[in-house]
Task: inverse folding
């Protein structure tokens, strides 16, 4: 049966970097049954501070265009792009997108915070594909949001197409490598960052192995935008057990 809000099929608006090849497939694979996903793109080739900063200028226009598709809610699917300007920028971005689209809007960085809070996580471990500069910005953002970051590990990749070529098995290996010193024995959750990192399919196996919730950027964003659209969704992980 198609997922509907009121008497019409749910339409999810998705704003992604132009080089992102993961968010749309994961939203379509794991999103609500019968829902449709409609994307608008912002220019970005490399995940660097300068390109992320320039990309944010195009977000509002993307939301305005998605409004033409009569979407139920909009998701800005870029983790570092929604935290690049520090604490508070994620909330401002959501407000700007909501005003432009005329429907509820969520941004990945804020969605991750909501997801971790819903899981009652305080101490977390983080795995990313990013360079050290962006890892430190992410650590600062998460700590400002009230989380203790036990460890953060990045792959040092800037080219976004290279990030998109990673497999769920790569994500699983990266997370398990975090436990070399037993750090995962004392965390409440693991966060796999980046909406271009194909990692949502790795969540069930990782949760079974680690015994703690595992949140991905696309998972958190999908969960949050479906809540905003009042759409039921069943996807991998403990997060989706929470309405």
Result:
């Amino acid at each position: 049966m198609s997922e509907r809000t009121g008497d019409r099929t749910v339409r999810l608006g998705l704003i992604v970097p132009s080089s992102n090849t993961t968010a749309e497939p994961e939203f379509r694979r794991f999103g609500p049954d019968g829902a449709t996903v409609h994307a608008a793109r912002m220019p970005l080739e490399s995940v660097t501070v300068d390109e992320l900063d320039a990309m944010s200028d195009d977000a509002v226009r993307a939301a305005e265009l998605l409004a033409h598709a009569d979407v139920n809610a909009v998701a800005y699917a870029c983790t570092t792009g929604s935290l690049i300007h520090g604490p508070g920028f994620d909330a401002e971005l959501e407000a700007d997108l909501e005003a432009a689209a005329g429907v509820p809007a969520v941004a990945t960085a804020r969605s991750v915070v909501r997801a971790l809070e819903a899981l009652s996580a305080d101490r977390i471990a983080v795995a990313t594909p990013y360079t050290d500069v962006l890892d430190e910005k992410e650590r600062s953002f998460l700590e400002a949001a009230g989380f203790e970051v036990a460890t953060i590990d990045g792959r040092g990749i800037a080219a976004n197409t290279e990030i998109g070529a990673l497999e769920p098995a790569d994500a699983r290996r990266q997370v398990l490598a975090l436990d070399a010193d037993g750090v995962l024995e004392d965390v409440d959750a693991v966060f796999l960052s980046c909406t271009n990192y194909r990692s949502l399919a790795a969540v069930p196996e990782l949760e079974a192995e680690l015994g703690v919730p595992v949140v991905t950027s696309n998972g958190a964003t999908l969960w949050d935008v479906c809540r905003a659209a009042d759409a039921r969704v069943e996807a991998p992980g403990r997060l989706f057990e929470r309405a």
